[in-house]
Design brief:
The complex is a heterotrimer of chains A (about 180), B (about 200) and C (about 180). Chain B has about 200 residues and is mainly α. Chain B contains eleven helices and no strands. The termini of chain B are far apart. In chain C, helix 1 (about 5-15) crosses helix 2 and helix 6 crosses helix 9 (about 155-180). Chain C has about 180 residues and is mostly helical. Classes of the chains: A alpha+beta (about 180), B mainly alpha (about 200), C mainly alpha (about 180). Chains in contact: A-B, A-C, B-C. The interface between A and B is large, with 45 and 62 residues.
Chain lengths: ~180, ~200, ~180
């Protein structure tokens, strides 16, 4: 039983000075945020204040995928996850699919490729009316849409809507997770 | 400030003439002011630029792009106020989307407080915006997402919940009924993730 | 040989973001203790601590004396704890137990040791936030009054008054508990 009187304060302080151990995952959570801030800063400064078109040469995996026309077979869905415990902000492959038998061309544009500016649109391949394209997409939340025949905007029917009607055209939301939840 | 704007746009046009040419001077000036204001408020600038590109791609004129960016700035500022400095850019983007859909920012703050820093709310906020935009009443939608987050549902469970609600509505279900029904199933069958501990109010 | 704070800060500012991890590891346990006692529970403490680290990273270029990064970070944490809101005490787990400390505690009466610890935390909760802050900085973190003034922005004489009142109040509260 603690004694009171002059020693009370010492006893209180002694107790309060006992070490407090923090879970190891704390460091990881902080560094996830810090690395994201770092990546955002680099993107911001590289885009020179008000932004610029995406330079494909900065994303070798992306350019390689387009050049090779590789279509990775990935389950279509809203959520793409990388099964790693350490968050790396690297892109992961995402497959976009639109069933449009009457279309002559389909492209995918969104936040991840500056909405096609600078010729960065993802051009889909047609397989009996099923249009698809795969590309690495960075972790994060992205608005995107299909552009059919170069002029018609179509939301992805398999994805959540991006609640954004600013420009009178539909768009969808894609969440790419970079860390295991 | 004006000198900076001129300088920045000069560089922008040099790098991508198509962007520079498509933004007239009043638009560039208005956008610069919005970007500056966002920076002062600690709001990430990248989502605002994405909105500019989206507007350009969709053929919107300058005033419409400015309006869209201004709305997004306000929505992100509201989200930032309730979510705090710990919210990531993605969470703010997703939260802004929910606010845009009509969800009061205070509801998002409640979810963030409930989940703390143990999980990202990017996906839950995205789903919230989606189901509200499909007609689920705001409070029903917010309660559903909060239930799922509170039950420790992982993102994949919340994704599945969104898909089920979407399909039900497309088949003719009332949005409110679809959400209320599906959340019951999702909460009982969810694969538990880290469960936020209840706090005792003093 | 361990890198100094200044060396690590310099590396981070030159783009080596992973060097920040060493700073996080270096200070997280030490400052977690303050946050836990100030805020009353681990959840809020970890949230405040994470926030402080990310704010510090964001403003790292404005750290005027990188050699004293720790003190600068602590100031951010103290401010963050102030804005955290009401202290919430969760019944049954008011703070993180240190296993070694528990082992070293009274082997004869471990349950009493736990109760004593909880009583102290509850008594801390009875102090005003200003008094609690001053008490923890002075006695638990063992800062000098000048340092405390720098961190809190409060004058030395006001801080001394807060510390004195905190000590008096804690003695009364804890004596009452044991007299009951």
């Amino acid at each position: 039983m603690p004694e009171f009187g002059r020693n009370t304060l010492e006893l209180i302080v002694q107790e309060l000075q006992r070490p407090v151990r923090v879970d190891e995952s704390f460091d990881r959570r902080v560094m996830v945020r810090v690395r994201r801030m770092h990546a955002e800063r680099r993107s911001h400064f590289a885009a020179d204040w008000l932004g610029t078109a995406v330079n494909l040469t900065r994303r070798p995996a992306y350019a390689a995928a387009l050049a090779a026309g590789v279509v990775a077979v990935v389950t279509v869905g809203m959520l793409r996850s990388r099964p790693e415990t350490v968050a790396s902000a690297g892109p992961i492959p995402v497959q976009f699919v639109l069933v449009a038998p009457e279309a002559r061309s389909v492209a995918v544009v969104g936040d991840f490729n500056n909405w096609g500016l600078g010729d960065t649109a993802l051009v889909a391949e047609n397989h009996n009316g099923v249009w698809s394209v795969s590309a690495p997409v960075p972790a994060g939340v992205h608005r995107y849409a299909f552009l059919v025949n170069g002029k018609q905007w179509v939301a992805d029917p398999t994805a959540p809507r991006a609640a954004s009607d600013d420009f009178g055209q539909p768009s969808s939301a894609l969440v790419v997770e970079g860390s295991l939840e | 400030m004006v000198a900076l704007v001129v300088g920045a746009f000069g560089r922008l046009e040099a790098q991508d003439p198509r962007i520079g040419n498509r933004l007239d001077a009043p638009t560039r000036k208005a956008l610069s002011a919005l970007v500056d204001s966002a920076k002062v408020q600690g709001i990430p600038v990248e989502p605002l630029m994405e909105k500019v590109y989206q507007g350009l791609a969709m053929g919107a004129d300058g005033p419409r792009i400015v309006l869209a960016v201004r709305s997004l700035t306000v929505e992100m500022a509201n989200a930032h106020r309730v979510l705090g400095a710990v919210a990531t850019t993605d969470e703010l983007k997703a939260a802004a989307s929910a606010v845009h859909a009509g969800v009061p920012a205070v509801e998002l703050g409640k979810m963030k407080k409930q989940s703390g820093l143990r999980r990202s709310l990017t996906l839950p906020f995205t789903v919230l915006a989606d189901i509200v935009s499909r007609g689920v009443p705001v409070q029903t939608a917010a309660n559903a997402i909060r239930s799922l987050v509170g039950a420790g549902a992982r993102d994949r469970d919340i994704s599945e919940f969104q898909r089920n609600v979407q399909v039900d509505i497309e088949k003719g279900a009332q949005p409110k009924a679809a959400a209320e029904t599906r959340v019951k199933g999702a909460v009982t069958t969810t694969t538990p993730g880290p469960r936020p501990e209840k706090r005792e109010q003093e | 040989m361990e890198s100094s704070d200044a060396a690590l800060v310099s590396r981070v500012l030159h783009g080596e973001v992973n060097a920040y991890g060493a700073l996080v590891s270096r200070y997280r346990d030490k400052y977690a203790r303050y946050a836990v006692h100030m805020l009353g529970n681990r959840e809020d403490a970890e949230e405040a601590l994470q926030d402080a680290f990310t704010r510090a990273y964001r403003s790292l270029a404005r750290c005027e004396d990188p050699e004293r990064f720790g003190a600068w970070l602590f100031r951010i944490l103290v401010n963050r704890c102030r804005t955290s809101g009401a202290r919430r005490v969760r019944r049954g787990q008011t703070f993180v137990h240190d296993e070694t400390a528990l082992l070293n505690a009274s082997q004869e009466h471990p349950a009493e040791q736990t109760m004593w610890r909880e009583e102290i935390e509850r008594a801390l909760g009875e102090l005003s936030a200003d008094q609690r802050e001053a008490f923890l900085l002075k006695y638990v973190e063992e800062l000098g009054y000048d340092e405390m003034a720098e961190i809190t922005g409060v004058g030395v004489s006001a801080l001394k008054m807060r510390v004195m009142r905190a000590c008096d109040r804690l003695r009364v509260l804890l004596k009452e508990v044991h007299s009951a």
